[in-house]
Amino acid sequence: MVPEALGRALAGVRVLALEQAVALPFATKHLADLGADVIRVQSYERVRPADVSNIELTRSKRQIGLNLAAEGGPELFLRLAAASDVVAHNFTPRVVRRFGIDYEGVRAVNDDVIYVSLTGFGTTGPWGERPLFGPGAEAVAGYNLLVGDPEAWPGRPGTGVYADDTCGLYAAFAVLAALEERDRTGAGQHIDVSLYETMVAHLGPVLAERARGAEPQRMLNADRRFAVHGVFDAAGHDRHVAIAATEAQLPALVAALGIEAATEEAIAAAVADLDAADVARRLQDAGVAAALVADAALDTLTDPHLWARGFYGLRHIEEGPASGWYPHLGPTWGGPPPSIESPRDVGIDNTDVLRELAGLTDPEIAELEAAGVLGEVHAPATKRAVDDGWRLERRELSRIDTTLPDWREVAGHATDATQAGAS
Amino acid sequence: MSAGRRVLEVTSGIGPAYASRLLADVGWDVVKVEPAEGDALRTQPSRWGGAEGAAFEFANAGKRSVTVDDSSLARLVEAADLVFGDFRPSVLEANGLSAGAYEAWAPRSAVVSVSPFGLTGPRSAWAATELTVQAASGLMFLTGEADQQPQQLPPYQAEVTGGLVASLAALAAARLPRGSEPQRLDISSHEAMTAHTFQFTQPYAYYGEVGRREPWPKLALRMVPTSDGHVYCAAGAIGSMRMDGIAQLIEEPRLTEDRFQTARGRADHWDEFLDLFVPPFSRRTAQEWFEAAEALHMTFALVQSIDDLFTCPHLEARGFLQRVEPPGREPVVHPLLPFRTTAPMPEARPAPAAGQHTVEVLEEWLG
């Protein structure tokens, strides 16, 4: 079921976001999916060609190119801030203080503003001025000593953006809670959300367990609550199946795999020459939890389950590395995917936004452009300039597929599957 | 904090429990419906064994608990703004609820389901655990070193991420005008996790690149062994960044040679590079390297354990962790609210005992 009304929940709410990298853009993407008018402010001077993955972080937002370091830059930002419900940034506390656009500066022009500082460690405390990136946040919050092999160096959650995304979700939650609070009391607030603390919060159950005497450590894919718990290599290059079975499920597992006893060795041998997805289905038929270890590529992008639920939508990209139809994420709570759009240029909405929010006339806007306060940059997505053969050799990539699915066909098949399932 | 908003949580599970706990954190009145013998998670041990029920304490802090019959439950649902649960038919049955609850119930704002694979689609009825959800999401394929199998993430990550997304969506649903059709939100922990993989799925969609677990050299330059543990070196050190800063930090001038100034150059002279880069770090403690790097404006991080978090001066200064003593049960330590705010903060409140608040909640909610 598609909660279409959810896309209007933040209608009339304006979010001004001075954002970079991933964490805050991920937060404001969610607010945009809920119908907020998100205005993404970035320097037009440092724009690099977009990566295709960043389309997910910039879509559904209006784009301003503003040079805060230019004379008149901070004043213009404050005029936009005065007309916004939420003002957010993910720079260090020092940077926003320097430009006079910290909470105090913005509050002076917008008394009930909801102001979000998304930083590495928060704006106070002994580490408050220190910079931190997402992967470092995972290390300092305790994740890396919980991932991988206890005999090897610490591991880390895959993707490189786990902390950024997670912090972004908490920031979006905080904004929604603050809007509710403001509706009730009329008061704004300063939300001080950090990569470090949100990652600690996300490990909350483990902190509680440690306090009660558990001994958290790296232990590969083991879990003492299960009789069988692990990842097994299946047929083909880099194919694996994950299996989790309780003591009570062992007879079913043994029968499904045709083995004599549910030892690690017997399971590994039974699975080694089989298709990982087939093993998962066979175990599921026997009521045992199992799943293909899906790659974050062909497997997930052609997953009939995800398509049937509307997790992906198709978008037509007009230019960039290859124009055509591509799958993109919809809202995280389910469809429908946002309207189709190509990546939008930095500064493309300068004129509209400044007319509307700051009441500026076209000559005034032209003057700001001439003075270098405002700018516009056309930077379509390009392919990263990396030698693919070298990346394969370094095992940075599992493989490169030269023939890709027709994504419209993938989407169409999924639609058929949904209809078949419904009938 | 927001008065008057009422949340009912009707099934077991960390996902729905965490979703409603986040709302309790920001002042909502959250009531958990429990069987008389208590939620199954009250006795669940940790991944490592022991610590029974600790995750329950974290996910249910600040709530009230009731034990009620079917007719009182129906009236509580009517009185609630939001209802959270895992609404898979099998879970409803296990919790003594009718299979049609998701469709039939009509609280004022929304019925919010948080389940492993969602309520629709070919895998909705699949048996699922944290491990298999992480596996299906694409995240495990990316986690681990190049020579390792895909690795699991820390415990509960899919469940708490699903819960977090559900809390967000629920707050949004509660903003919609009253009197419109109640919303039904079907949150899947699997999707909440798959959303993290967009930086890998998009390059595949466009270029056919299948990303995988990181090659060990990359990891090696992220976490380097020190005299007492490991220190995290900023990712920039392995990209196109020059080695001048690192050379100065570890007092190894040979790292400024031209051949080490690009990622490609370092990879082509990898063994020599590692021999120069890694051993010096064993001369000092992680904390010393962290501070020395900071003095040179390099972004390092400590590789902390859970015990380190308990004694972290920064978390202590910000009052981030709370020791909570539920009456009659062992104490726990956990975060109070995932962020700081100038708005009034909630007080640390323990998770309830099963059915502890039945009488007062029935009186308050049903009059």
Keywords:
heterodimer, A: 423 residues, alpha/beta, six-stranded parallel beta sheet, 37% helix, disordered C terminus, B: 367 residues, three-stranded antiparallel beta sheet, 17 helices, 36% helix, elongated
Write a structural description.
The complex is a heterodimer of chains A (423) and B (367). Chain A is of the alpha/beta class and 423 residues long. Chain A is built from 18 helices and twelve strands. In chain A, the strands form three sheets. In chain A, strands 3-2-1-4-5-6 form a six-stranded parallel beta sheet. A three-stranded antiparallel beta sheet of chain A has the order 7-8-9, covered by helices on one side. The radius of gyration of chain A is 25 Å and the shape is globular. The model of chain A is unreliable at 417-423 (pLDDT under 50). Chain B is of the alpha/beta class and 367 residues long. In chain B, 36% of the residues lie in helices and 13% in strands. Chain B is built from 17 helices and 13 strands. Chain B has helices spanning 14-25, 54-59, 70-79, 89-94, 101-104, 130-137, 157-173, 189-194, 198-207, 216-220, 244-249, 263-268, 270-277, 286-295, 306-310, 313-317, 358-366, and strands at residues 6-9, 29-33, 64-66, 82-85, 110-115, 183-188, 209-211, 223-225, 230-232, 301-302, 321-324, 332-335, 340-341. In chain B, the strands form three sheets. Chain B has a six-stranded parallel beta sheet with strand order 3-2-1-4-5-6, with helices on both faces. Chain B is elongated, with a radius of gyration of 25 Å. The model of chain B has no long low-confidence stretch (mean pLDDT 92). At the A-B interface, helix 6, helix 7, strand 6, helix 8 and helix 9 of A face helix 2, helix 6, helix 7, strand 6 and helix 8 of B.
